[in-house]
Here is the input.
Amino acid sequence: DGRGAISTQSGVLDGHPYGFAMRFEGVPGTNPEELIGAAHAGCFTMALSKILGEAGLVADHMETNAVVTLEEKDGGFAITASALTLRAKIPGVDDTRFQELAGAAKAGCPVSKLLNADISLDAELLS
Here is the structure.
């Protein structure tokens, strides 16, 4: 019937509802796209934090969201995009350098490398 539960080794998810209805019908629970989006946003932010540290910078605030697109394609479904949105407050960096560092994090994040999808980034340096 396309429904079940998902758990993780860490216990963060423990028998959490997971399935078709969560994916396509708005039923409470989670689905693969939501989990991939969370993993991508978290991975990207961790990668950027490392890159900032290597550049001698420390963020006061970073908030990243990822919206994953699932489309019908070639008789099935495919994840075709992951749109990252970053809002960050980082003292001592101008927008040009910020965009360069954020782009490096997008390209270097292991989850970005895993996804064979169009990955976009909207990064805004807050004052």
Notes: The chain has a mean pLDDT of 92. Residues 32-54 form the longest helix (23 residues).
